[in-house]
Design goal:
By secondary structure, the protein is of the alpha/beta class. About 40% of the residues lie in helices and about 15% in strands. It has 17 helices and 15 strands. The strands form five sheets. A five-stranded parallel sheet has the order 9-11-13-14-15. Strand 13 (about 295-300), helix 9 and strand 14 form a beta-alpha-beta unit. The structure holds alpha-D-psicofuranose (PSV) and manganese (II) ion (MN). Alpha-D-psicofuranose binds near residues 102, 176, 223, 298 and 333.
Amino acid sequence: MNTGGGRPGISPGSGRGLVQPGLNNRSPSPDRVRLQTATPIQSLGDQRQFSAVALTAWAQESHTQLQCVSIEVVFQGRNYVKTAEEKITEALDGLAIEIPSWGFANTGTRFGKYVQAEAATSIEEKFADAAQVHALTGASPTLALHVLWDLPHGVSDVPLIQDLQKKYGIRAGSINPNLFQRQEYKYGSICNPSAEIRKIAVDHLLDSVEIARRLDSQDVSLWIADGSNYPGTQNIPRRIGYLMEAMAATHARLGPKQRMLIEYKPFEPAFYHTDVADWGMALLLARHAGPKAFVLVDTGHHYQSQNIEQIVAWLLRERALGGFHFNDRRYADDDLTIGSIDPYQVFRIFHELLGDASGLQQTAFMIDQSHNLKGKLEAMVQTICNAQELFAKAALIDQERLAGLQEEARLVEAEECLRSAFWADVRPAVRAWRQSRGLPEDPLTALRTCGYLERIRKERSERNAVSVSSYA
Ligand code: PSV
Ligand code: MN
């Protein structure tokens, strides 16, 4: 959802939203197109007289970023039914996935790091790697930045990022303040009992808003690591008050196009209580902060077997969902590749999103993964391909038919309607989409054969060899 783009036919505002009726020049000319948009269209006149092809051409020529809620195409008196390929094309054209800068750097577990020769050792190398991933997948025009790691000098690093954006054709995505690494934050950052330390943390949040504003980046993405390890050691209600103060101060600083996303996580680093532990707390905080505050769902931040799509449905309904950090997990916050453990879970989340066009429109798709065993770029390309396939599958769900079956409580048919889309082999259509967009049909093979990995391994191996591999 952050500014980006660069692909023809994609709205630079969001990666979703440009009028794309999913019809191409080979499609029969429809009788009428009924278009429901989030914003009124004056210049279109009587919208219903426009054919889908004319409508697409008009939107592209006028660079209109219509927020399209739904399109109904009527052909020979009957609703036009899009083919599977058309549905997939439409879905993939609108899918932009933000990748994290920290996904290219050497990272590890609390037990140590396995250093990779190809890992990025500077912010420039992170941008270069992100550009390579985008060139292969066509779906990752923005790079999430973590302030302390990528802009260690704060606002004064903005010109460097602006240069890198230009040089690599990748835009800065969400701006992630760091509220967990300073020594002062041992007993909390914005919830610390010390007013002095709380001020350091709030000032960092305000700097992050300023960084985002200067980079024209829509989202400041907040993860609050605060909490405690033992009962009785912290005053929970008092800390709720501190949280609310900090969120209100951050919200007050947001510009008209900016948003703040509040991420929750039940445990880690704190093991007894976490100040923003679940979506209810995040939602309440967002509500208290103001209308530009939304909830961010990190799929790895849930208890075992929690029904994440139900949380998504609630947040969508409340217009409170701002974005995702996608990753998969088996035990806790494992940061595994999206869909590697439970692809059906991701599909079910996409299903909820695709059932709510304007909710989808305001939801940023971001990846929060950092691999220490898989190759950095390989893992990132694989991640995007997995997300595209699962999104394409979800786009095949016959939402209308499903709604009818649900109404009539035809349980098995409803379940099969959902499942049949999940089991559809979308890979040929995804490959065809890539070809039609001038992208390599198989991005992973293209990565392995394009020479980029060999080059960066050679260039970076010495620098990576001196990187610490132990926390001792
Ligand atoms: C914390 O586990 C988290 O999910 C937050 O989003 C952080 O910003 C990110 O991981 C990177 O550490
Ligand atoms: Mn996260």
